[in-house]
Known about the structure:
5-stranded mixed sheet, 23% helix
Amino acid sequence: MPSSKLNVALLPQEIFWGDKEANLRTVEETLAKLHPDTELLVLPETFSTGFPAGDKEDIRSLAEKNSGETIDFLSRMAKLHNLAICGSFIAEVGGSLYNRAFFIEPGGEQTFAEKRHLFTMAGEHKSFSRGYDRLTVRYRGWNITMIVCYDIRFPVWIRNVENEYDVLVAVANWPKVRVDAWNKLLYARAIENECYVLGVDCMGVDNKGFEYDGSSMAIDFKGKSIGVQIESSPLSDNKYDQSANVIYATLDMDKLTAFRTKFPAWQDADKFSIFKD
């Protein structure tokens, strides 16, 4: 019988822009020190490369297929540590580029979906093709939906109709200069959808000079922050060791169900359809 609780870990990863080897090493080093009860690790948007801005062909050089280095690595790590791992990466299919969300389970199951809302202010729409389906999985008794960065600004796309999901995962490369909006939107999505929200941003400085401060949080269905950082031993000289940055939270299905029963605002939600233009 599935547990009523889900132990999650959020990694506001410092991304070394364009250095796939270094970024995969970061994840490997972090997993080696992760709390052993963790069942889901959430990584930032395009965690293995950083947000892809610039020439389309330069971006293409970082892209992979689902059977490429990044997903193969994550599949091995998920099996080794008996947990699921999610985030996004740069994918190429039939010559088209996608900012592709992934959810990799320890049993080998893989689920993918493309980012729907491309960030036009950075020219993402000039290099990437948009997606038309949300990533939704059922994992250890929990219904989980996942979106990518700019998607968080569009509540219709994210609307939790008839409680179809219990957890909304949002992964991002959201720069510090606008991070206050990111933080507020995460809380809003949790409250309006009566669900848990896991938001993970990255840290570092990208190839355009934008700074990222790693604003990440776990929020419950009432809009309360529930994530904590566990004190660990001092960081080693290994630059890939980011284990002290990890935010942990335990999600409780019994509490979520009780709140939805006591305060069923979801029953009064408006009906609507989204056109896949």
